[in-house]
């Protein structure tokens, strides 16, 4: 493409924005609102998934060793637990430590004397699995191991909890999908109105011999520019809004996990800008097709 053609295209882009300032503002606001809604739904999905993972990470299996096992037998049991398929990590809590923890939780120094200087607590292993969905299967395998007295893992709570975490993820994905579709429709309608208002200009250019590419590029660049401006405004609103909401939740609901990784948030905000530019360009191309058939 010749240099003068490139200059003409960029000049047309800014002349078009200046001539159709209200339509341009409407396009920017449409992109901004759509990207704000989409960005908010993405952060909802991230936090829903993070909350689900946090719940799942709390799933653990408590394995109590038989009282008559000596230190060698207890160590061998730990090795067998480690070798089981699906086991991620194990943590050993000796009976003396268990009694100490119990005494500390009651804030009492006479528990040992009250118990007749005996320790009723068994040695215990806390088992974490690789996949939370496999908790029941791993627990079933553990019960068959030699030296195991009892296995506790919240049998009646595991299935409802996993169903809830799966529902959280699906709900987050559905929200993102619905708002993404709504955003595309809203932006496409706005771009079509913009292109329709300039249909005479397009028809005249076609009649005087301008190529489709020559006509198309000013609209593509204009769509990208308006998408860029709308995207930048959107990330300001989403970024500051999410930062305030995350601080508020962490202050008032300290137990609630919130996604606050700077790199991840930056990637989401950067994607919003790129998506705004992409939708602006794609919407222009799609909307131009019917008017280029003169």
TrEMBL record:
GO terms for cellular component: plasma membrane. The keyword ATP-binding does not apply. InterPro entries: ABC3_permease_C (IPR003838), FtsX (IPR004513), FtsX_ECD (IPR040690), FtsX_firmicutes-type (IPR058204). Signal peptide: none annotated. It is a multi-pass membrane protein. The keyword Nuclease does not apply. This is Cell division protein FtsX. The chain crosses the membrane at residues 21-46, 167-191, 225-245, 265-288. Residues 59-151 form the FtsX extracellular domain. NCBIfam families: FtsX_Gpos. Keywords: Cell cycle, Cell division, Cell membrane, Membrane, Transmembrane, Transmembrane helix. Belongs to the ABC-4 integral membrane protein family. FtsX subfamily. Gene3D superfamilies: 3.30.70.3040. Residues 175-293 form the ABC3 transporter permease C-terminal domain. GO terms for biological process: cell division. It is found in: Cell membrane.
